[in-house]
Amino acid sequence: MRRFRFDEEADVAADIRGKYGFDGELLEIFAGNTGAVVHKWHHYIPLYDRYLARFRDRPVRFLEIGVHKGGSLQMWRRYLGEQATLFGIDTDPDCATYDGAAGAVRIGSQTDTQFLSEVVAEMGGLDVVLDDGSHRMAHVRATFRHLFPLLDQGGLYMVEDLHTAYLPRFGGGHGTRTNFFAFMAELADDMHRWYHKEGLHHPGLSERVSGLHVHDSIAVIDKEPVHRPVHSRVG
Is-catalytic flag, 135? Predict the structure, then answer.
């Protein structure tokens, strides 16, 4: 989207620091990158740190959908640390050349459920999914339906570049049922099932959703044990 392109001669770090007040290590890793190309919207950087910092220097199992030029996996390796199990998947066979550079790369479709299950099995489980794949609404939803149940408790599912939810060429559109944020709204209804009698939109899936976070073009879904809410008066 050319109208949002940042001036390539300007200071990337200064822009992120000035607009978002973020000066963490991920800023240095991203803005100071001299390796394989990493392409990210600037406001993603502090959001990544907000949600992923707790996984740093731990044996996190991290799956990125969409390898592109390989730079993103290298960024995650530097940020998450050597204990992380990093896998990337892509439909482009040329991405196989990045296998082993910062993590494992497997070639296949994000809508191929058998392929996804095989990758998760090879990873030994799943803690974090970052969907930066096709950005097509049908693909995003199908991938979430398959992978979210495979996340361990305490896991996190992030979908980025969701401005495509408003673009018809990606299967989206304002006010359409195919828009991923419409799906998020249904999950929100299901989270609040205790307070209405309309039933569940997504039984077997939404009962595992403990939190929903929406930012510009990014959605984050938490997976934690969900309990029937209670309240108390104390004192």
Answer: yes
